[in-house]
Specification:
heterodimer; A: five-stranded parallel β-sheet; 5 helices; B: mainly alpha; 12 helices
Chain lengths: 143, 309
């Protein structure tokens, strides 16, 4: 059982969904792949298809249209799937709170495992957030 | 009997070729990372990836043709296992049978063919685009590889047995030491590149254009089977090139392994260099490259081989 969690955390394949973001967080996510940060040394890689994904990274404030797509994507992903909210927008809606096309923060739509606030979060913060996610997966196993 | 089963399953057979293939793929990833001034994944990364895929859930798409969808990764992995057993037993234990070159050629077709069938049965439009590209690419590269195979056969005195092809190289000199042999090695490296979906010829799985292309609907263990077949192809294709063209005389068992690992790492290095200095070709350009540049080169190689050069 412990081995299973260890294998899962050593090879997290990340699918990145921009649910109506200003692209700033997306650029910071791409920064994680650059030589300075290089998340491939932890075994993470960005994948093109949701069917291959272990982590769903979501950026951007959710609006009504993207929420529909997000629910479909969440259903299409093979479980176990972990969801990470990158940026302040999916965490708490930021300055779009109360705006007419908004449905509410991300965790009211699908369950979220880790929150990475920041506008945009620095690549270090994103890596720290993923480390938190890894700790969460392994801690769940210890109980 | 037990010795024979061990030969097929453990030592030059399935497990050995999987481990070496995974290490070869890791070497390729690590070299790519170093070319880009990154650190790259740890050595056990590919084993972890495969194990993880077997822990995940498999989703069958609603519209898919289910039997074909499930069957095609399994068929492709079994074909690759057969290829690597035949090749490794020939290289390390000198086991061979008449016509095994032809058998290997047929078996190497199966993974690509079933990737296409699996992609088509998943009914995903992007998978369809990937499958169409793979079909066109297959028509291009198989053609070229057959010419390089013919060069090896002519060099061995028209024998279609792998043991004769390697034996004549041990007696005289490796095929690569002649003009036609060098051409054949070049052609077969491009073939391996296209077969393994490495960058200049990875239009079938182009991540930036069509997401994951042919494997887009696959998840969990079924994707794991594809991953295994790719890792084992990473072992068997370089081994096929080595035994066809670069087989050198080795005195002891130890030096045989040493030479194999050096040659293998060299071929992976060359493929990785080609990968890192080239952008992805358009499918039109790739087919043109194979048909109008590499194929005439192959014909030239056959003529040179007939003249004994």
């Amino acid at each position: 059982m412990k081995l299973k969690e260890k294998i899962l955390t050593k090879s997290l394949w990340v699918y990145h969904l921009s649910a109506g973001s200003c692209n700033n967080c997306d650029i910071e996510i791409l920064d994680c792949l650059t030589p300075r940060f290089d998340i491939e040394r932890f075994g993470m890689q960005l994948v093109g298809s949701i069917r291959h994904a272990d982590v769903l990274l979501i950026t951007g404030a959710m609006n009504k249209k993207s929420a529909k797509i997000l629910k479909t994507l969440y259903g299409q992903a093979p479980k176990p799937l972990f969801v990470a909210a990158v940026g302040t927008c999916p965490c708490s809606q930021h300055l779009f709170k109360g705006s007419y096309p908004m449905l509410g923060p991300l965790d009211e739509i699908i369950p979220v495992d880790v929150y990475i606030p920041g506008c945009p979060p620095r690549p270090e913060a994103i890596i720290a957030g993923i480390a938190k996610l890894i700790n969460k997966i392994t801690a769940k196993n210890k109980k | 009997m037990i010795k024979m089963i061990a030969q097929y399953l453990i030592f030059p057979g399935v497990i050995f070729s999987f481990v070496i293939g995974a290490m070869g793929f890791w070497l390729e990833r690590k070299l790519t990372a170093r070319f880009q001034y990154r650190i790259g994944p740890p050595w056990y990364q590919n084993f972890i990836d495969v194990m993880k895929l077997f822990l995940k859930e498999t989703i069958l798409p609603k519209d898919a043709t289910k039997t074909m969808f499930i069957l095609s990764p399994i068929v492709s992995v079994s074909a690759v296992i057969l290829v690597s057993i035949i090749l490794a037993n020939n290289y390390f234990l000198n086991v061979s049978f008449v016509g095994d070159v032809i058998v290997i050629l047929y078996l190497l077709l199966i993974p690509s063919l079933f990737t296409i069938l699996g992609a088509l049965s998943s009914k995903n439009p992007l998978a369809l685009v990937g499958a169409a590209r793979e079909i066109k690419l297959m028509l291009a590269y198989e053609f070229v590889f057959i010419t390089s195979l013919i060069i090896a056969i002519i060099k061995s005195g028209n024998s279609i047995m792998l043991a004769d092809i390697t034996g004549i190289q041990i007696l005289n000199k490796p095929n690569i030491a002649s003009f036609s042999g060098a051409i054949a090695v070049l052609l077969s490296i491009f073939y391996a590149q296209a077969k393994l979906c490495i960058v200049p010829f990875d239009m079938a799985e182009a991540e930036q254009e069509i997401m994951a292309g042919t494997t887009i609907e696959y998840s969990g263990p079924l994707l794991g089977f594809y991953k295994i077949s790719k890792l084992m192809l990473y072992f068997s294709l370089p081994l096929f090139i080595i035994s066809l063209f670069i087989k050198v005389h080795t005195a002891s068992m130890f030096s045989r392994y040493l030479v194999f690992f050096l040659m293998y790492a060299l071929i992976i290095f060359v493929m990785s260099v080609i990968k890192n200095i080239n952008p992805r070709m358009r499918i039109k350009d790739a087919v043109r490259f194979f048909w109008f540049f590499l194929f005439p080169l192959g014909i030239l190689g056959i003529i040179l081989a007939q003249l004994g050069l």
